[in-house]
Amino acid sequence: MSGTTTAGARLRAAGGGANRWVVLVVLCISLLLVALDATVLHVAVPAVTEDLRPTGVELLWIVDAYPLICASLLILFGTLGDRFGRRRVLLIGYGIFGLASAVAALATTPEVLIAARALLGVGGAMIMPATLSILRAVFPDRRERAMAIGIWTAVAAVGAATGPVLGGFLVENFWWGSVFLINIPLMALILPVGRWLLPESRGGADGPWDVLGALMAAGGVLGAVLGVKRLGAGDSVLDVKAVGPLLLGGVLLALFVRRQKRREHPLIDMRMFARATFSTSVGCIILAMLALVGLELIAVQYLQLVLGLSPLETGLRLLPLTFAAMAAGATGSHTLHRVGPRRMVAWGFVLTAAAVLLLTLMGQHDRPWLLTTGFVLLGYGLQTTLFGAYESMLSEAPPDQAGGAAAIGETSYQLGAGMGIALLGSVMNAAYAPALNSLSGVPGSAGSAASNSLGEAYQVADRLGGSSGEMLRSTARHSFVTGLHVTLLVSAGLLLLGALAALRLPRVMECAAAAEKCPAPRRPEVSLPASREPAEATGSGRAAH
User: Looking at the whole model, is its pTM more than 0.70?
Assistant: First the structure.
């Protein structure tokens, strides 16, 4: 009884006074931790490739294991926190995240690193929905909440900006495993502080927690994304290794939806998806991440392998993108208030598409001003889009579904990120590989190995030496740049599709975002749950993630 009283007192203090801003600081540190981990590895990919010699599929898993496992478990842990305490789940997630970081830093094989990244995904899945739900609890007022989201997004962009620079410094001066060790001091700080300051909160749902439904959701998301990954790695659409997980995931998700509709106390209220605002916002988040994450990974390879920049120089080149995302997060509340979510999301997509098209002017020679301009537009546009989409989606969810709504938002984000790497990676491979597979004067086995990635092509060229090696290196560089241009065009198409989708957002959202200019919204303001920041990883905030 005393524990309940203490938790309730802590929550009242956090929600009713200045302490809620202290709670926001702790939650922002949590976001900083995840944002750092999401972006710091991208700069270390070439070093990991050289040291562990992973295959192309293993390299995709090293990068992808974290977001995919995280995405598959978000609904499970989000709804678990609603029932048994979000603060409790959050603190356990901190511990798992720290342990996984240590394992990843000491990994000596690709398999161990993949397993550690998967464990990081478990910790991330516990952290993300819990922080968003706690943010909802301590900021019930929508205007204050929008300001908190702006701070949240700015911090995420700082983490994304710091990640590549810090990662580049660590890779150059130590070894690639050190990029994971930076999580340990943050964990040592945030665990005791979080235990002392964070309020405990639970959802208002009664009835038993649907364990079977949570497992069905986890298996469905994992199977669906795994199937897409296999297709992205080059498997045939008739290959059971790709189609099997995809079909199984689809069946599990369909059964999960059916189960939730029939239960008296569902994990997720599926009626939310019947609202155009909610479903359209989810689609916009997925499209934005489809375009962003795969591009960022390819951009890092371009900077290091085509332009020959060091990891630290690569991180510095990405700073404009993440600083622009930070500016978009800091001004997001004002923008939302002035123009409304519909125009905010749509024009964010259009600005990002323009940035992507501008970047098609990249070639085999360095053009710093072109890259800087493109990255600034990209970071600002995507962070603006994600901010508006998240606010719109979570404002449509009932307050007692805060954990479930946060889990859906995070699942959409992570699902889009994982699918983006698979989809844009497959487009890149389809444009890059053919020229190397049939290169005259180069042994067939060498050309086949070089077609896996540009980094591997350089290794094969070094082993061949002579004119054959130089020809292979030059062809690989040219094919990579060509593939990059094709990938950028596909990404621009996805972004423009997102801009069109954003036009479906109902006008009532704009009224809610600018109450003094429009009639009162249909639902009372108190029923609107907290928005969350998209950024976690963006790198580009998330945007620059």
Answer: yes
